[in-house]
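Narrative of accomplishments. A recurring question from our advisory board has been how the design workflow behaves on a single, concrete structure rather than in aggregate. To address it, we present the structure tokens for one chain from the evaluation set, followed by the sequence designed for it. No filtering or post-editing was applied between the two.
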């Protein structure tokens, strides 16, 4: 487990800032409970500083995970992709939010896009092609998406498209193989 390089930190912060904006400082500046970002096997973990210091005594090949996994860097392109586990830290500070009606939750879970008819409410002034967090009407965070088309004058949503980041439609099940967990 090691600290992130400058390039890795920049990519991580770019991705987090696309959802959180300047609220990213709430993750970084925590004087009462300092946290750090650590990299282990291409995955980025958000860890308490005291626990990160203790984890240095464990061999790299023996350490599976520590803290909350925010996401991972892809092998080929080096892009950072958020995981579902990041929702607990990103959702409270998200800049743009959309609430989906209950009749739109199931179509999403089966891999479809969110359409205008399924949107209950949304944050004001959400720009086009912006990262947004999608919530159920009971304020449960579901996923992150990218706004596809928004008519700016009337704020009418035509739809959202999945950007493949936080995918509640089975991605976490497909990812269990990376951790050595059987899904059958």
């Amino acid at each position: 487990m090691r600290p992130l390089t400058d390039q890795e930190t920049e990519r991580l912060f770019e991705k987090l800032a696309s959802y959180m904006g300047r609220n990213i400082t709430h993750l970084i500046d925590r004087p009462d409970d300092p946290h750090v970002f650590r990299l282990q096997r291409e995955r980025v973990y958000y860890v308490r500083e005291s626990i990160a210091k203790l984890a240095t005594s464990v061999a790299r090949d023996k350490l599976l995970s520590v803290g909350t996994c925010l996401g991972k860097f892809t092998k080929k392109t080096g892009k950072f992709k958020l995981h579902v586990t990041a929702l607990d830290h990103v959702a409270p500070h998200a800049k743009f939010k959309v609430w989906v009606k209950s009749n739109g939750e199931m179509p999403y879970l089966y891999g479809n896009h969110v359409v205008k008819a399924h949107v209950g409410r949304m944050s004001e002034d959400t720009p086009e092609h912006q990262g947004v967090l999608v919530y159920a009407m009971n304020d449960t965070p579901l996923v992150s998406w990218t706004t596809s088309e928004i008519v700016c004058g009337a704020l009418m949503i035509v739809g959202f498209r999945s950007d493949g980041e936080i995918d509640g439609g089975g991605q976490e099940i497909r990812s269990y193989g990376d951790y050595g967990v059987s899904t059958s």
